[in-house]
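Throughout our pipeline, every protein is held as a single compact record rather than as scattered files. The record that follows is passed on verbatim for readers who wish to inspect the format.
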Amino acid sequence: MFRIGELAKLADVTPDTIRYYEKQNMMEHEIRTEGGFRLYSDSDLQRLKFIRYAKQLGFTLEAIRELLSIRIDPEHHTCQESKGIVESRLSEVESKIKELQNMRRSLQRLNDACCGSAHSSVYCSILEALEQGASSKK
């Protein structure tokens, strides 16, 4: 059994993070010492690592809650439910990648349009292009 500080160190989070997940009903602390300190098990550590990895993948807390409920009670859920959650996140990531690729192309065009010399920026092609782009977005 681990106290909250030990669990936090093992999972590379802060005790406040664990308390936050408890408030979000993603972690429990049913066992306490006589002095009132929370005690956590290996399964709590595994759950915390599950939450952290899901967060690294960009899942929302709501999606992580759903995945946890599927993990905790697999007999009443299907793989299709988990897959649906992952497919939704994958779609979000693919959309963001397209957005970032468009942004990259636009920035590359701006960069390529400028000679980069040390002359005055009175006639800077980057500033002019940004001004024209800002005007056309109205």
The mean pLDDT is 88.
